TrEMBL record:
Assigned protein family: Belongs to the purine nucleoside phosphorylase YfiH/LACC1 family.
Keywords: Copper, Hydrolase, Metal-binding, Oxidoreductase, Transferase, Zinc
Assembly and oligomerization: Homodimer.
Species this protein is from: Streptomyces finlayi
Cited function: Purine nucleoside enzyme that catalyzes the phosphorolysis of adenosine and inosine nucleosides, yielding D-ribose 1-phosphate and the respective free bases, adenine and hypoxanthine. Also catalyzes the phosphorolysis of S-methyl-5'-thioadenosine into adenine and S-methyl-5-thio-alpha-D-ribose 1-phosphate. Also has adenosine deaminase activity.
Molecular function GO labels: copper ion binding; hydrolase activity; oxidoreductase activity; S-methyl-5-thioadenosine phosphorylase activity
Alphabetical list of InterPro entries matching this protein: Cu_polyphenol_OxRdtase, Cu_polyphenol_OxRdtase_sf, Cytotoxic_necrot_fac-like_cat
The protein, known as: Purine nucleoside phosphorylase
Recorded catalytic activity of this chain's protein: adenosine + phosphate = alpha-D-ribose 1-phosphate + adenine; inosine + phosphate = alpha-D-ribose 1-phosphate + hypoxanthine; S-methyl-5'-thioadenosine + phosphate = 5-(methylsulfanyl)-alpha-D-ribose 1-phosphate + adenine; adenosine + H2O + H(+) = inosine + NH4(+)
Amino acid sequence: MIQRYDDENGAHFGFTDRWGGVSAVPYEQLNLGGAVGDDPDAVRANRKLAAESLGLDPAQVVWMNQVHGRDVAVVDGPWGSDAEIPSVDAVVTARRGLALAVLTADCTPVLLADPVAGVAGAAHAGRPGMLAGVVPSAVEAMVALGADPSRIHAWTGPAVCGKCYEVPEKMRAEAAAIEPACWAETSWGTPAVDVSAGVHAQLAALGVRTRSQSPVCTRESGDHFSYRRDRTTGRLAGYVWLDG
Ligand SMILES: [Zn+2]
């Protein structure tokens, strides 16, 4: 249900797969996305199940309305209502114990934590967001709250891999002109983009030395939601928080 990583400094990272929830086909089972056509009651139940399995209070999880941009929200508590959720692709907090969540189904979920400063961040990096600089934006916002890139532990979660993310030649050229590390080729020999590789190159350039990457490709894994494979499907979530 959830792959969890806890570092020795009190930073916690979790990535869900599609199992262990209550949603029906084609969102089976643990769909955590509220805007994909699934029954809202099922999504609510799934968010509760996922939070509880991580030892989190579901009411203390901060979600975003993701729009493939580079805007960041600084938060110090949960949103008052769904109507308050801003359209951003990154959230950062200096509130220990508050969990930040990012939804994906092929895009790269980026989780960041500086346990010494007590600052965490989560970002949604698809191809447009990665190229727009959502990851540098998130790190910059964390630094403004006292984080130091050299202390940040970054995790990227399950995402479509560079061998699967086929794009037109022109799109690859444009992407690689902005972030050379994302240049890729599919396993069948056509142009591709590796968004996670781009994210890791950006993090390295920002001085984030402690970086981990999930080996899971969502398009290849039957245990994960993949938009490119299934179109109508659920959303996975990544969670990051610091000991309170
Ligand atoms: Zn793949």
